[in-house]
Design brief:
heterodimer, A: mainly alpha, 2 strands, B: alpha+beta, 6-stranded antiparallel β-sheet, 11 helices
Chain lengths: ~190, ~260
């Protein structure tokens, strides 16, 4: 992208614009719509809603600062996730150092109505997910919820492909087995 | 494909990263293996449940968006100061003063310009074109006698010579008309010849050109020649050579140091 030129993809065409106020419009158009995805992933990674909000805020501000370097038309979501994953360690360390206590995520945040009949199993799998090590939670969220491929996750986390596949495999086996165990117990009328 | 490869390949299968042949092989194995078929079914179910559980997690982005927006629109303190009328007026005044001073300083004194141009012209006639002129002395002793007559001191003849240069000749030179005599000294090193024009206000009143010189070195390009002039004590000095500006300033600076 030429410096200072921002593109807005309209319904049937792309508009190129120049100027600082248009930078803001382009940022609103490209980056801000990913706020919810970032926040959900941040909650999954950090297991703390306040830390997650801090992390996403830092991510978006950093993205704003370096928005000129973003090659518009490429995958903005992946770019934002890369920034967030790079920042995640630092933000968590900062929160720990400041000893700020925040309310951990619990089931009461879930949307019971939309979950319908699967609510109990969603709850169980989410508990199983939250019990996983952080490295497995990160790759599972990126793969299953955000739809990144193994190759993309390897690039986002700067990890070898084999490591990503291994973490995904172990995480998935845990979830699958956990779900199978619970289902079995419930089937026997114990749950 | 074997059953023990299932867990390794499942992630690539589910993210559609297996190539066509491997994907067909995976499909064929699952179709013929009830255990792996069950595993795949449970895996897909677990993925769907996790996705719906986390993707429907209600998150409020309003707070984050509002904080980000506030920081993006926040006007930095330096910009706030810059936007005040008082600061803008002060800045504009300062710029105007600086520009005016720079303009006045950059304007060349016409008296110095004339002196520099006539010095360069004399150098060209005597050194480049080698036009025959009367009054040259080539002997060092005779030159020192001439220096005493014109500037009241013999020492500049040796003192002004840059390192490696030797005296070629000297003569009285009327740079600014008949009444204003300068001592023209020519030195050489190899094929290069340079000129010093020297005048002292101790012997005679300062000439118009000499009065335009200052303690600071001032230089001017005249054709291929660099001309540098300065005033030190009673001496007005003009140096002319086909050197770069930096080199000419270096030689003139050494001469100024010697006089000081």
């Amino acid at each position: 992208m030429r410096a200072g030129v921002y593109r807005l993809a309209m319904i049937d065409h792309t508009v190129e614009m120049v100027g600082p106020e248009l930078r803001e419009r382009a940022f609103e158009h490209e980056a801000m719509p990913h706020t919810a995805s970032l926040l959900r992933a941040a909650i999954s990674i950090t297991r703390d809603s306040a830390v997650a909000e801090d992390l996403v805020q830092e991510t978006l501000l950093r993205a704003w600062r370096f928005f000129d370097r973003f090659d518009q038309g490429t995958n903005c979501k992946a770019w934002l996730f890369r920034i967030m994953l790079n920042l995640s360690t630092r933000v968590r360390e900062k929160r720990t150092a400041e000893s700020i206590s925040s309310v951990p995520l619990d089931e009461t945040h879930a949307d019971h109505a939309s979950a319908g009949g699967d609510f109990l199993q969603q709850l169980l799998i989410r508990r199983a997910f939250e019990a996983l090590p952080q490295d497995q939670r990160s790759v599972l969220h990126l793969a299953i919820v955000d739809g990144f491929t193994c190759k993309e996750i390897a690039e986002l986390l700067s990890l070898p492909m084999g490591t990503v596949m291994s973490r995904l495999s172990r995480g998935r086996v845990s979830l699958r087995d956990h779900l199978a165990g619970r289902t079995l117990v419930r089937g026997k009328g114990i749950c | 494909m074997r059953c023990n490869e299932f867990d390794d390949l499942a992630s690539l299968y589910l993210s559609h990263e297996l190539d066509t042949a491997r994907r067909r092989e995976f499909d064929q194995h699952v179709a013929g293996c009830p255990t792996c078929a069950s595993l795949l079914e449970r895996q897909v179910r677990a993925d769907d449940l996790l996705r719906s559980s986390l993707a429907t997690l209600p998150v409020s982005t309003a707070a984050v968006r509002s904080r980000v927006s506030a920081q993006i629109h926040a006007v930095p303190w330096w910009r706030q100061i810059f936007q005040t009328r008082r600061f803008q007026f002060a800045l504009a005044s300062t710029v105007l003063v600086i520009v005016t001073i720079s303009f006045l300083r950059s304007r060349s004194d016409p008296r110095a310009v004339y002196l520099f141009e006539t010095s360069a012209a004399d150098h060209v006639e005597c050194v480049v074109q080698r036009i025959e002129k009367a009054g040259w002395v080539t002997d060092v002793g005779a030159t020192e006698q001439l220096a005493i007559q014109i500037v009241g001191d013999a020492r500049p003849v040796r003192g002004l010579a840059p390192t490696g240069y030797t005296l070629v000749k000297a003569r009285p030179c009327r740079l600014e008309g008949k009444a204003k005599i300068w001592l023209h000294l020519i030195y050489s090193r190899g094929a290069r010849e340079i000129s010093f024009f020297v005048r002292s206000s101790r012997n005679s009143p300062g000439s118009t050109g000499q009065l335009a010189l200052t303690a600071n070195l001032s230089s001017q390009r005249v054709g291929d020649l660099e001309v540098v002039g300065f005033q030190r004590g009673a001496y007005g000095i003009v140096f002319v050579a086909d050197l770069s500006r930096n080199e000419a300033l270096r030689v003139a600076s050494a001469a100024a140091d010697w006089i000081s």
